[in-house]
Amino acid sequence: MRTPFVVGNWKLNKTIAESLALVTELKNQLGAVKGVAVGVAPVFTSLHSVAKRLEGSAIATCGQNCHFETTGAWTGEVSAPLLADAGATWVIVGHSERRQFFGDTSEIVGKKARAVLAAGLGAIVCVGELLAERDAGRTLAVVDDQLAGGLAGIDAAAAASKIVIAYEPVWAIGTGRTATPAQAQEVHAHIRKWLADRFTPTTADAIRIQYGGSVKPSNAEALMSEKDIDGALVGGASLEAADFIAIVKAARPS
Ligand code: PEP
After folding, report:
1. Given 3-state DSSP classes, what are the helix, strand and coil percentages for the chain, each rounded to the nearest 5?
2. Deepest of 130, 138, 184, 206, by most Cβ within 10 A of its Cβ?
3. What per-residue confidence (pLDDT) applies to 39?
4. Has 95 been annotated as catalytic?
5. Is the pTM of this model over 0.90?
6. What CATH superfamily classification does 5-250 receive?
7. What digits encode the pLDDT tens for the residues 197-226?
8. Which residue among 13, 215, 224, 239 has the greatest number of ligand 1 atoms within 8 angstroms of its CB, and so is best to mutate?
9. What residue ranges line ligand 1, CB within 6 angstroms?
C-alpha cells in the first residue's frame, strides 16, 4: 500500500502574505483529510514562514530546487541543509523548467537528489519527455535516461520512503493539455518496472510515482485512480485553495 502524495509547486508565485493566506486555508481545510500526504513548495523567500505556519499540521513544506553543494562560493544558490534548517522536509529536483532553462542535466539532478537525501530530506525526482521526443517514440528511453541519472549512486532500497518520482510529460506542463490516464499509466508502469529491475520489486512497490502536467479538479480522480499513479505534482491548480483541496480529496483511497 502506498499513501498518495499530492504536492503543490507554486513556482515563482506569491508574496509571503499571499503564501500564508493560502497555506492557512489549506491547513484549516485539509486537517481532517486522511489517507493522503500533502505538500506545498513555496518560493524560497516564503518557505520559512510557510513551514512555521504549517507547524502542527501534516502538510509538508518542500523546496522547489536546491544546489548540490552544502555551503561555499555559490552565489544565488540554496543548499539542502539550509532548506532543512528553514523547515523543508522535501525538495523537488529535476523539474523540467530547471532542465530547460537552467541547464540541469540528469547528472546534476542526481547530484542534487543525493544532496537532498544526505540532508535527511525526501527527494521528488522529476522526469518527462518533450513533445518531439514523444512524437519520435522516444518517451520511455528518455525517461530511462533521466531515471538512471537522477537516481545514480542512490541506495533506493534504504531510502524508498524518501524518494518520489514525478512523471511530468513536458508537453502537458502548464499547457492545459493533460496526458490521458492510460498514457500516464503506461509510463508509470514502465517506471515501476525500471525501479524493480534497478533495485528490487519490493523497493519499486514502495516508491511513489506522482503524475504532473495540467492536473486539475476535473481530471485528478481519473488520473490518480490508475494503479501506478500515487498522487500528483500540481502547478497552476495549486495556486487556488479550492482547486488544490479538490485535487487532494480526489487522491483519497475510496
Ligand atoms: C508542474 O510545474 O510541475 C506542473 C505540473 O505544472 P501544471 O500543473 O501547471 O501543468
Report:
1. 50, 15, 35
2. 184
3. 98
4. yes
5. yes
6. Aldolase class I (3.20.20.70)
7. 999 999 999 999 999 999 999 999 999 999
8. 215
9. 9, 168, 173-174, 212-215, 233-237
